[in-house]
Design a protein that fits this description.
By secondary structure, this protein is α+β, with helices and mostly antiparallel strands. The chain contains 15 helices and 15 strands. It has a five-stranded mixed beta sheet with strand order 13-12-11-14-15. Strands 4-1-7-8 form a four-stranded mixed beta sheet, with no helix packed on it. Helix 1 packs antiparallel against helix 2 and helix 3 packs parallel to helix 5. The protein is globular, with a radius of gyration of 26 Å.
Length: about 450
Amino acid sequence: MAFSVDAADFDISITGNFPGAQGKKIRLMQYSDLITYREMEIDAAVVDEDGNFSLTFSRFEPLYVFFRIDHARMGMFAEPGKEYHLEWDSVDFSRLDDRINPYLNPWSFTHTISENNGNLNHEIDEFEDELHKQLAEKFVVMQTTRNAGLLENIREHTDSLFGSVDRKYFRDYYRYTYAYYRQVANLSRFSSLVQEYILNQPVLYQNTQYMNFFNTVFDTYIFGGSRSISGYDLRYTINELNSYHALMDSLGKDSVLRNEVIRELVMLKGLQDMHGNPDYSESNIENILVWVKENSKFPQHKIIAGNILYLKNHLQKGSEMPSFVLYDDTGTAVKLPDDFRGKYLYIGFWASWCESCLLDFIALQQIEQEHKEDIAIVAISTDRDRQALERFTRQHNFPWKNLHFAGDFSLLDTYQVRGMPLYILADREGKVIGFPARRPAGELKSQIEWLLHQERGPRR
């Protein structure tokens, strides 16, 4: 009998009701890979007047996804072919205080998940709750005495509760959770762990616990964990030979890394850590990553290499400043950096409650007066309430373009806004000079004057 696959078998539908979030944009995100953890938007919707939203996407295997709404982040596991419905408790967003840095401590709102054909999220939550309850009582003793029997006792207990769950993602998650605790509590020899859980096993790129275990086991492995890989060999193959194949051959001296897929994945993890290390040629590292991105036999490794390159070069000196459009108080579109080409562009992300932002603006005013022919200044308020910006500008008449981020949290993600204030300086062509840029109350004035001095050249 022929086996047929319908595209709908891979569709995932998520509906929800979120009282209080009417009119807000909810973004559905995933990690592009679990080495770099680059965040990618899958779908987005605006919560309607009744608090409802709907999101759809397709995937071939289960994965972890998370929702972003304002400063909030909430996650769940999603399986192909499933329909999920989420119910949130009512939230009054106007009463939420974002002065305690929500970029570093994202909000999380209480919600429940119902799903058809079983409940992977419920199973994982119950397992995690039971496991952590047991570990809270025994982990310190287990780690200090290296008593593997204590962990086995816990596993026997959770086996009695979850042993009948036959969902593959859950079984792998369960298995590699225990592998992880064997590693962090130092209950097994490294070689035994790798032999049992890594070698001759499929690489579970989308299973969060497999990759958590993998990242823990091979954290800094090629720099100090392997007796067969020397620092000299690494520097020689990268700095002198500038060769993917030579680097792979060098890593292959380690018997743990003879499996090609594992070796290349460990190599990518190592290259991610080497980038920016002065002992290694940055351009050569990027050459090897480009080779993997374009030529690897393993599709997921192409994605990982591309993500490493993106994250290492994003907003770096000489890169193109990401473009975006905001609207001023007259409704006129302001295109950045395009509308300011020909001048140096200094952008500041700030908030009205940020006292150091105001001090910076006072210093910035003098710089603007002295160099307004050469530098354009744009201040972007991240206040969730646009009226806060309006009150601020009525009280303080600073002579530059004041814009509101208009609830575009993807813009804040693009510019890695994690605190206030944050500045970026671009050249006359829109290329990044500094990120984070020097602050107005610091060395910005001398930097601007030096840039202008270099343009004029020596006097004759």
